[in-house]
Amino acid sequence: LQLLTVNVDASSLFPDVVMNAHTSDVACKKMLYHYITHYARQKSDLALLTVNTLQKDCADVNPTIRGLAIRSMASLRVENLSEYLVGAVQKGLVDKHPYPRRVAAMGVLKIYDLNPTAVRETSLLDDLRKMLIAELDAGVVGNCLIVLKEIDGVRTLATKPIVYALINRIKSFSEWNQVLILDLVSAYELETIEETFDIMNALESRLGAPNSAIVLGTVKVFLNITLGMPDVHQQVLERIKAPLFTLANSGLAETAYAVWAHIRLLVKRAPMLFSTDYKSFYFRASDSNAVKRLKLSMLTDIADAQNTYAIVTELTEYVTDVDAAIACASVRAVGAIALVSADDIDGIVDRLLLFFDLDIDHVTAETIVVAADILRKRPKHTGKCIKAMENIDLYDISEPKARLALIWIYGEYGEDIPSAPYYVEQSLLNLSDEVTPRVRIQLLACAMKLFFKRPPEMQAMLGSALEAGARDLDQEVRETAMVYYRLLERDVEAAARVVNSRDKSPIYTFKESTVDEKTFDMVFTEMNTLSVLYECPSETFINPDAATRRTYNDDEPAAETEDLVGSSLLDHADMIDFGADDASDNASASGGSAVNLMSLLDIDVPATAAMSTPTAFALTPSPALDPASFQSKWASSTIVASGVQIALESTSALAQSGPSALSHHMTAHHIATMASGGQPDAMKFYFYAIDRDGAHDTYLVEIVVNVSAKSALFTAKC
Question: Which of 82, 251, 654, 659 could be bridged to 255 by S-S, CB 3.0 to 4.6 A?
Fold first, then answer.
């Protein structure tokens, strides 16, 4: 077993281990069975010798031995032994002791992964469904639930007898199994209104559980079953606030973040219900930055006529936070409240503009961005905003978003800012020195707007900016400059109308602030999942077919590898054959090492390369590199391709001869092996090659080969 932990192949000891498997010592038996299950798939012909011993142990008087034997038999993963495995599991499901029954229930899933047909042709799944209701041991029921959920899905189990049987004894289950039960209940379709109250009464105590997953799972059940009852739904929201706040303010930071994320979802759904609890969203000393950002978002949502100024006063204190990200987020929160508030916001805008007096660079930059939004949506506050910013020089602002906003303000309100042309003069005369393309485009637009407002001051600057923009390396900047130039060349008055065409009437809704109701509803139905943390439905980050991929069939590798590979970056025609009969012919026809290495590095190889020998790229016949140099180069080299997974045409040589087969194959193509080893399901190789001509570049490649799946994972550096 120590050899296994250090990834040394000890399969040659398999016959000797099998001969000693009859020992009566429990500790030794555990270690022997662990070894046997580890190498049973590799030594499938000898694994049959262990069946007799395991079957005897399945009838042992010691329930621990019986459970160990059942678990070991189910873990053999040798398809030819399926009939023996099914028999052992069937006996285990009716064992008198709960431990063998628990192990047997999980064994059904292992057999299903190996041979689904063998499970479905028997009564194993029906037996598990019956045990969900009749079984007395909570651990056995939990394992049955896990197995059936994995195989058939949760909705097939959401029947009234099963749901009621599990709810009535939910307190006896482990925390993990309680979460599974709550997930099952949330999928149950109610038949009558009375069931709604029966279920809520039965699960009421779970709102006080110390485990956050249980509380959130219960909240999900309550909200889902009351969606069609608005009055009850609102009462549920009122009921769950206290448990959620208690849970959010206790425990680990990671748990707190998950709970606050769910509270944010509820706040977005019913902000008025949380408006009176606004003080619960104030910062605590123990809050992480992630939680603080969530609280800022929620404070913005729950602000109303009664609490707006209290919230803004609190947010003003956060603006001086030592963390720049939190300080900027606080400024944005104050601005967001000013933008959405329906009442008079003079006091909020005044407090916002006072942030300029703090003389903190990142606060000033963020305040400029927020002020620009206020000018767009609340034009009646233009006078005080422009007066507060009329002395801010573009030279003092480095944040790209703030520069964009300030340049836009100079262009739109240049007639009210006396020094506006001079603030942008240096940037216009040195347009190419501006790093961000969007800022360069905004500078061109600002120059055009100011030109029609203050022509004498802007004429020379505009000409210089258009000339530099026309030569800009960025296509969008270049095209913008050319459009402005042609407008001026064709019709100056038309150019003035185009440049100053913005409607200065109030903007009631920013498109970027709108919420997709359909997406929000989908996330709401997926509470207590990652969808709430990611703020998007599970279908956007989970493969919908993943749950059905439980089969492991060596007879159909093509279909499986196709799913694994997807759109591989390597052309199938350039895949290296690890032992097929025509390997040598393919190597010589494709130009030897050159074409194969280019395939590893994801360099397109023309179809005609197979008919001619490449001359522009060749490898040193006997490359030399010591381990220390290899490690140093691996750490400093540039990644050419990473995580590229491809299908292999044949792995027969690797299966028979081990890692040496691939090493010999690569040596023939002038690619040396630095290290190799590992088990058949994860053989790892480190190769290197040196360019014979040119700069003598060194190419380094890491390959992880799965022999049984006939796939390989590549990482290449140069």
Answer: 251
